[in-house]
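Subject: Pseudooxynicotine oxidase

B.,
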Amino acid sequence: MTDYDAIVVGAGHNGLTAAAVLQRAGLRTLCLEANTYAGGMAATVELIDGFRYEIAGSVQFPTASQITKELGLDTLPTVDPAVMSTNIGESGEEPMIFYRDPMQLMTHLDERHGLEAVTGMAELIGWSHGPAKALGRFDVRQPPKTLDEMYACAANEAERRAIHEMLFGSAMDVIDRLLPDKDKHAVMCGMLAFLAVNSTYRGPYTPGSATCLAFALAIPQDNTGGTAMMTKLDE
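Prediction pasted inline below.
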């Protein structure tokens, strides 16, 4: 192992990026992957014979503008999809269509899921602002914050409470409080619970899972896309 200056375990999109940056910096870099393919979420794989599936290679999630520029992502042609996701429940349940345009999203929620859904979603996005700052979601080359530094990010008492809940509460503590109707809001709650557990291997009732919910809901302060949480690369 003395042949290498850096060893990256995992050749997913994060591992490949880290390995490329290290290699460009002049370090002798080895990138290891247990799967038979590289790319992770950015890969296209054959799920069954003859059926090739793009996991998420053309999906670009919110990223700090400095990183976007340094990786050259800002030079790639993109498509801003009108609909970012469609969430389907059981028979008879209204699907939740996550529109890119915030007014269209709120109109859909009002017409299909009721005014409480509009209020709950708006409060949820508002709740995420303090935690996003505390997490340093879009900080670049900064060390992780201490607990005291996280609390100091709060602009008011509401943000301080949200940061505390993000650190020690579960995703469902937040979701159930803001969207309390378990029948009418079932599809919305399912979508949000999925956001909170995606790739974490923990359930949404696990203490600390509110952190993942805040991470998923965060958008950069300079974002002009409203509720835009993803962009598609033009293939």
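Strands lie at 6-9, 29-32, 44-48, 51-54, 59-60, 78-79, 83-87, 96-99, 231-233.

T.
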